[in-house]
Amino acid sequence: MKIAGIEINDHDVPLWAMAASAVALLTALASQYLGGLAPCKLCLWQRIPHGVVLVLGVGALLWFRGPRERLLLTWAAAIAFAFGAGLALYHVGVEQKWWQGPDTCTSSSTDGLSVDQLLDQIMTAPLVRCDEIAWSLMGISMAGWNAIVSFALAFLWVTAFKRSKA
Q1: Nearest to residue 122, comparing CAs of 100, 103, 107, 101?
Q2: What is the CA 34 to chain-centroid distance, rounded?
Q3: Nearest CA to 16 among 45, 53, 43?
Q4: Residue 1: beta bridge partners?
Q5: Considering the entire predicted model, what is its pTM?
Q6: Gyration radius (Cα) of the chain, Å
Q7: C-alpha–C-alpha distance, residues 113 and 115, integer Å
Q8: What is the pLDDT of residues 13-31, one digit of tens each?
Q9: Which of 25, 46, 108, 126, by CA, is between 20 and 30 Å from 32?
Q10: Structure confidence by residue, pLDDT tens digits, 123-164
Q11: SS3 137
């Protein structure tokens, strides 16, 4: 398989996917601990599929060297990336106010609330809200970039799966 002028052996796809997930996780952690961007609840959830892919990649490289096992892990990683992309798209929708996010990380209407209810809502509000964009590049939020990368990686794994079946 050739991507952007780089020849990738189908056997090395788990290594490339692991590297991509590691870069995604390291970028998220660097933006959190070095850049001061505290993650919201949905940001934290988006890290899980990348962690799953790292575990699957290690399994594919170390223990599951047979073609059937590698096909199964390839398919599982593609599903993990697709799930991660869907979760990232959901987060983008919450950021863009296309739909309401989880009650624990978005603001809700204050209409009709008593002073005590309003004070309770303020006191229980999360520090970082999911419906606010903390950082963007070229008009695309971090969640949007995660969706793009995750869809591309899911496509890469599905392509590797199809090629290994042929």
Answers
A1: 107
A2: 20
A3: 53
A4: none
A5: 0.76
A6: 19
A7: 7
A8: 677 778 888 999 999 999 9
A9: 108
A10: 665 567 788 888 888 989 989 999 999 998 888 778 777 766
A11: strand
